[in-house]
Specification:
The complex is a heterodimer of chains A (115) and B (112). Chain A has 115 residues and is an all-beta fold. Chain A has strands at 3-7, 10-12, 18-25, 34-39, 45-51, 58-60, 68-73, 78-83, 92-98, 104-105, 109-113.
């Protein structure tokens, strides 16, 4: 069974940084691309970033380009989202999803950017 | 960016009756590899999204056959043949052909 477990969310001040982690199990992690999708409180889904299976290819939404970095560690079966220069509008539940077409999702980790 | 437009915004339905959600894209979703990467997701209240349909019409693992997807090019539809109480939630389409990936605004399905 595919399992994705996000962690690393929390309260951070504007301009601060956070690193989200997504630990994967139940499938051969190194064979799959991974994605991050966020959902602001009471709003719809917004794709944030994806990374190819090898880690070479990365993609970002314009809203986070230059501030967020996606990466992966195959030895730990984990994908990361390093978030810098955080803004109030980055406040959201951040989901990790398998593949670039989001075929399985985690439970999400909440990021709140507020002073 | 490809804009995904869903309608209606809200869909009150009667148990046992059919329901239909439309999703239109601002550009063709036919990929250079010949596939059309249009996905449908269900998000029940308080839960994570779940993919129901991929590549327009393929149901995901464990998805009941009352859900069906259809369409081509820029015009797509998700149909529920007979709505059940567990189908309440918000439904999203997402295109996986172009970068950046984009979602529709969502359609809230509720029981009348």
């Amino acid at each position: 069974e595919v399992q994705l477990l996000e962690s690393g969310g929390g309260l951070v001040q504007p301009g601060g940084s956070l690193r989200l982690s997504c630990s994967a199990s139940g499938f051969t992690f190194s064979n799959y691309a991974m994605s991050w999708v966020r959902q602001a409180p009471g709003k719809g889904l917004e794709w944030v970033s994806s990374i190819g299976s090898s880690g070479k290819n990365t993609y970002y939404a314009d809203s986070v380009k230059g501030r967020f970095t996606i990466s992966r560690d195959h030895s730990k079966n984990t994908v990361y989202l390093q978030m810098n220069s955080l803004r109030a509008e980055d406040t959201a539940l951040y989901y990790c999803a398998r593949t670039m077409h989001c075929d399985s999702w985690g439970q999400g980790t909440l990021v709140t950017v507020s002073s | 960016d490809v804009v995904m437009t869903q309608s209606p915004l809200s869909l009150p339905v009667t148990l046992g009756q059919p329901a239909s959600i439309s999703c239109r894209s601002s550009q063709s979703l036919i990929h250079s590899d010949g596939n059309t990467y249009l996905n449908w997701f269900q998000q029940r209240p308080g839960q994570s999204p779940r993919r129901l349909v991929y590549q327009v019409s393929n149901r995901g693992s464990g998805v009941p056959d009352r859900f069906s997807g259809s369409g081509s090019g820029t015009d797509f539809t998700l149909k529920i043949s007979r709505v059940e109480a567990e189908d309440v939630g918000v439904y999203y389409c997402m295109q996986g052909t172009h970068w950046p990936r984009t979602f529709g605004g969502g359609t809230k399905v509720e029981i009348e």
